[in-house]
Specification:
Elements: E1 2-5, E2 12-14, H1 16-25, H2 31-35, E3 37-39, H3 44-71, H4 84-101, E4 105-107
Antiparallel strand pairs: 1-2, 1-4, 3-4
Helix pairs in contact: 3-4
Length: 109
């Protein structure tokens, strides 16, 4: 489990695979930075941009798969589970609140 904490927002809890996915999008790819870290206010605009770009890429990919299936005359694929957008938006909102308050976000501490 990941618990993202800040003095400017309530805790945000994610299951381990989902938290790891978010951190990977943010460029935290090594085990140490995924286990424990800090997102400083000056890095938050870039973090929001990375998350929004990943959401758009995910949605574009799914739309492309649907279109390809329709072009072949097949039923469009069904996507199981919760989308990246649904998982990332609460974190993006947390980042925005923390950026406005100039407070960092920490995890694993």
């Amino acid at each position: 489990m990941y618990k993202f904490k800040s003095r400017a927002a309530g805790d945000l809890i994610m299951l381990e695979p989902n938290g790891r996915q978010i951190l990977t999008i943010l460029g935290r790819t090594d085990a140490a930075s995924q286990a424990q870290g800090i997102l400083l206010p000056e890095h938050m605009p870039e973090a929001i941009e990375k998350l929004q770009a990943a959401i758009q890429a995910d949605e574009d990919h799914k739309a492309r798969l649907i279109q390809e299936a329709q072009d072949r005359g097949e039923a469009p694929p069904r996507f199981e589970g919760i989308s990246l957008r649904q998982r990332a938006v609460p974190f993006i909102e947390m980042i925005k609140r923390c950026q406005k308050a100039e407070k960092e976000i920490v995890w694993g501490v």
